[in-house]
Design a protein that fits this description.
CATH superfamily: Pleckstrin-homology domain (PH domain)/Phosphotyrosine-binding domain (PTB)
Radius of gyration: 19 Å
Largest sheet: 4 strands, antiparallel
CATH architecture: Roll
Structural class: alpha+beta
Strand content: 25-35%
Strand order of the largest sheet: 1-2-3-4
Order of helices and strands: HEHHEEEEHEEH
Number of strands: 7
Shape: elongated
Number of helices: 5
CATH topology: PH-domain like
């Protein structure tokens, strides 16, 4: 079971998962190519890189945005939807051609989160902004219901 699924609060649902673009695997490809001239020694590095990439989880739930990294140890960055201030897209010209980019979220204070080299960064930005809008609308409806009660 993935970290994202394990960490869900009661009633919380995963809205989207964000995959890395294939260009994020360039180190893995390099190590695999080096395995031939190094008589397989580079396969150890390739195995580690493969595990590192598989350990990255990124997604948005109906309450928060989550990024988890780490093979043995775990490092998570979570940002509640209510605390998001900006969602920025950074995409180079090559990134636009190949379909990858970085999505940077800024929260209240100095909280920042970056999804590096994600596939289809515009869809990632849209998913986060949509989850944020739904969250704000649900809070507004709850507030009106409580005021009317």
């Amino acid at each position: 079971m993935s970290y994202l699924d394990e960490s869900l609060a009661p009633g919380e649902a995963v809205l989207a998962r964000f995959d890395l673009h294939w260009t994020a695997r360039w180190r893995l490809a390099l190590f695999l190519l080096l395995a031939i001239p190094t008589f397989g020694i580079a396969l150890l590095a390739a195995g580690w890189e493969w595990l590192r990439l598989r350990a990255i989880e990124q997604g948005v739930t109906d309450r928060r945005v989550v990024r988890k990294t780490g093979i043995v140890s775990r490092h998570t960055t979570e940002l509640r939807l209510a605390s998001i201030e900006t969602v920025d897209l950074r995409q180079t010209s090559l990134g636009r051609v190949l379909g990858y980019g970085d999505v940077v979220l800024t929260g209240r204070g100095e909280t920042a989160m970056m999804f590096s080299r994600v596939a289809d960064p515009l869809a990632v930005k849209r998913a986060i902004e949509s989850a944020y809008a739904d969250h704000v609308e649900a809070a507004r409806v709850r507030g009106e219901a409580e005021a009317g009660a």
